Amino acid sequence: MPSLPSRLLRGLIDLIRGALIGIVEIIPGVSGGTIALIVGVYERLIDSASELVRGIVHLVIDPLRARGHAKSREHFGQVAWPLLIPLGIGMIAGLIAAAAVVAPIVEHHPVQSRAFFAGMILIALWVPARMVGGRWTWREWALAVPSAALAFWFTGLPTGNVAEPSALLVALSGALAVCALAIPGLSGSFILLVMGLYESTLAAVNSRDVGYLATFIVGMAIGFALFVRVLQWLLRHHHRVSLAIMTGLMAGSMRALWPWQDENGDALAPGSDIDVTVLWFAIGVIVVAATLVAESWLVRRRLAGGVDVLDD
């Protein structure tokens, strides 16, 4: 069993991981699923979320069928709580902080921000590509290339804004956005932009609009409950195929991060600030490369009792 310092260190690491995922969910074009892949929690997060959803379903349905709570306890017991709790706390804290701090930075420095995130995503493509396992075959390429083309097309869709969205539209946007969170390469914030609800959702977070946020969260819960089981099955039974598609989606989504864009998101030629922009791109590359190196070191680092601080 891990020592107390080991457990505390692991909890702190997972808290930081969750904060990173929460922060990028505010930024259109950057996928929380991508960050989950980069920091090494993606598959464990999907597995735990699946067990949590199944546990909740049995908790509600089984008493109505006079079956008790044995099944729900079984599923809850499969949840990696030491990972999920600090990750969830970090995500919420990161999302709230990003809404107040990061989003204005992106708004006032869009070119440099997009360059920074483009550098991050470019180097991060190595993560799902490596996780495919072994050398890529023609089948992986045949799936990754169309996936990249699909993401490239999707991120070129025009965006809008709905001033007073209905509750049904808010719930639907939550359901679709959380599905994008689970898929590396698809940005939940960009889906909100396409649906015209990005500004209203960001305003609801900053103003703590309980009614709006509650409706959005209900939609997220429904969308995730319907989607996560499918995703878990694909990762378990079609691992190489799923990760090849994710790699393609990540690559194609980089269209949204071309630094020079007009107000409609159409690409422009590089401006006079190209030297500063390239510098921020390089910083993004270095940040992710350093994260991956640190992750590799931590995985191999054994603390007291020979227990890895990143193992659950």
From TrEMBL:
InterPro entries membership: VCA0040-like
Domain of life: Bacteria
Keyword Hydrolase: no
Keywords for the protein's UniProt record, in alphabetical order: Membrane, Transmembrane, Transmembrane helix
Segment forming the signal sequence: none
Spans through the membrane: 20-42, 79-103, 115-132, 138-157, 169-198, 210-228, 278-299
Record-given protein name: DUF368 domain-containing protein
